[in-house]
Design goal:
Blueprint (H helix, E strand, L loop, with lengths): L1 H19 L14 E4 L7 E2 L46 E2 L15 E6 L10 E7 L4 E8 L11 E7 L8 H4 L11 E6 L7 E8 L14 E9 L1 E6 L2 E2 L6 E4 L9 E10 L2 H6 L6 H4 L12 E5 L3 E14 L4 E9 L22 E3 L4 E6 L7 E5 L5 E4 L1 H4 L2 E13 L5 E2 L2 E2 L3 E3 L1 E4 L4 E13 L6 E7 L2 E2 L2
Parallel strand pairs: 2-21, 3-9, 19-29
Antiparallel strand pairs: 1-26, 4-5, 5-6, 6-9, 7-8, 7-10, 8-13, 10-17, 11-12, 11-16, 13-14, 14-16, 15-16, 15-28, 18-21, 19-20, 20-26, 22-25, 22-27, 23-24, 27-28
Keywords: Signal
Amino acid sequence: MKLKNQFVFAIFYLALAAMSCTNEEQDTLEPQIHVISEKLTGVSPTIVASNIGKPNNFVDYAEGQEVFDWENLAYLPLPPNNSSVPMPWNSRAKMQFSEDIRNDYKKSDGWELYLSSFSTKFREGSLTFSLYNKYRGVLRYYFFIGSGTQKFQDYNILQSQVSSVEESPLLNFTSQYLVDVNKNVPHSMGYEPQLFRDSSWYAVEYELAYDKNIYSKNSNDQIGLDFAMTKQNSLLVNGQQLPELKTKIRVFGTHDIISNTIAADAYYLIYGYQDLNQIATTLPSSNLEFFNNIYDSNVLSAIKAGTQSMHVLWNTKLNLQLAPNGVGVLNESFVISGANLSSIQGLGPFYNKALGIFYLNKKPTYVKTTSSEKSHPYQYTLAINSVEYLFNPAVLEIAKIENLQQELIATETESLIENNKRAPLFSGQILKSNKPLHIQGVKVSFEVVPKDGGNKILVVKTFMAEEEN
């Protein structure tokens, strides 16, 4: 009996061994990827001279145009006999934009009045004004809708298009998730869950890139804005059917504003933690955890100001079908500060310096090598001195740049989206791997530290890179 049991056990053992081993007739199991990350020493990035061009500080303002104290006024400064309109952050105001940015408008946090379409002496049609944050490179545009929306109560998406001159990288941070410095994108499409309602404020913001040639431009080079209200017929984000749009989505590249169907790469624009809670059910939990630490290598594009305010981009796949008819809300354009505006006709910006915090002077590079090392034969090394920073001189006048960092970002798969969620990322200045990697780009980060003692700003941006020959 004992011998029989030993025989059965031997057969069982051999069967297990046969199942766990491979031979020439069996497919080998794909090895798990393993990546070693290292830092380079003794090499620094390049800071390109900041005194490029000469700013044009002269602006010929329109008659009656005046700066107003947006921070302390409860109501808009309008001519006599106009109905009073509360400021967007006034408790009496109705707003349709994100609660996360409602109280983010203070001068001490870097906000400056950029432009307004009204004063105590005149009112030009729509009530609009914009603020620019000189430490973050963000332009926020506010507009007010009075009445006449009752027929469109089910219109629940604000559709926006911003455009700029093709020769400028100004909108590249707004239009691109992974920024290609060899490609200027002149348009950006956006969709936001802002309802069409009477007597309400709307707000949309754009992160701008520094254009080193801005001082050579003139009043013909303008930013154009188109806003419309619409409703969705269907919505899929990362393959998941959703009943409604929960937060702001920007679409890569150029898309026609009157198109009814959008199937494209896109990204969420998350203003803060309330926005994050809004999309908690639409992103995998493994993705959500990265937002708790903006310094995490998985966050490829962000601005973080202080302890609460953040402006994070997170890539996604969008399939959105809109109703065939939308309602045009606003169409206008305005000049770009920093350009030569001495011959301007119409409203001029109150902020007259170049926009944006920084840009890269060229596409960064990396070196790919292979070795006979069996465990990690594939190596990717960032050419750190190929990361050439262009910092806006207007920013360097008022702030210091600290903690400058740069590293490669890589994935095992070609796409950033894998199985409807973010693919695992590998980061480092040197990456050694047992399998080939796809280099997605170079992530750069730094802190803008205001000289007046204000809160420091963390800036994170990822740029496409190319392999050195």
